[in-house]
Amino acid sequence: MEDAEEALRELENKRDALIAELESLEKAHEKGDLSNQEYSEKRKKLERELVETMDRIVQLEFLTGRRRVLRARSGGITRFEELRADTARTLLSTFYR
User: Fold this and answer.
1) Quick check: 59 and 80 in contact, CB under 8 A?
2) Domain count along the chain
3) What is each CA distance from 42 to 16, 21, 35, in whole angstroms?
4) Phi/psi at 52 (nearest 5 deg)?
5) Domain that residue 61 falls in
6) DSSP letter for each residue of 16-29
7) How far is residue 31's CA from residue 11's CA, in Å, rounded to a whole number?
8) List of long-range contacts for 62-69, beta carbons under 8 Å, 24+ apart
9) pLDDT tens, 42-90?
C-alpha cells in the first residue's frame, strides 16, 4: 500500500507541474512568444497528459482508500463515472475561468 501512496504523491506532483506548465504556456502566448498554432499544439498535448494523470490519480485514490466506489446505478451513471466527470469539470474550470 505504501507503494501506491508514493505513486499517488508522484502523480499529484506531476499534476501540479503540468498545471504550472499550462499557466506558463498561457502567459507566453499572451506575450506573443508563441504562434496560435504552436500554442494550440502544445496546449492539447499538455491537457491530454493532465487528463491522463488525473485519471490515474482517481484510480489510485480508489485503490488506497481515499475514495470509495459506489456501483449502484442512479439515472444510468455510476458514482465512479460521476467522479471522473467531476475531475474533468475541475480541470476545465482551472483553465477556462
Assistant:
1) no
2) 1
3) 17, 10, 11
4) -65, -40
5) 2-95
6) HHHHHHHHHHHHHH
7) 30
8) 63/4, 64/1, 64/4, 64/5, 64/8, 66/8
9) 999 999 999 999 989 888 887 777 765 544 444 554 455 555 555 655 6
